[in-house]
Amino acid sequence: MYGHWPAICSRIKAAVKRLIAVVLAVLLLAGCAGGRLQTAVEKAAGLEVHFLDVGQGDCILVRFPDGRNMLVDAGSTKSAGTVVNYLKKNGVRKLDFVVATHPHEDHIGSLDAVIKAFEIGEVFMPGATTTTKTFRDVLAAVRDKGLKITTARAGLNILRSDNLSADIIAPHGSQYESLNNHSAVVKITYGRVGFLLTGDAEAQSEAEMLAGSASSLKADVLKVGHHGSKTSTSTPFLKAVAPRYAVISLAADNDYHYPHKVVLDRLKKAGVQVLRTDQKGTIVFATDGKDITFSTEK
Ligand SMILES: [Zn+2]
Question: Around ion ligand 1, which residues have CB less than 5 A away?
Answer without folding.
Answer: 106, 200
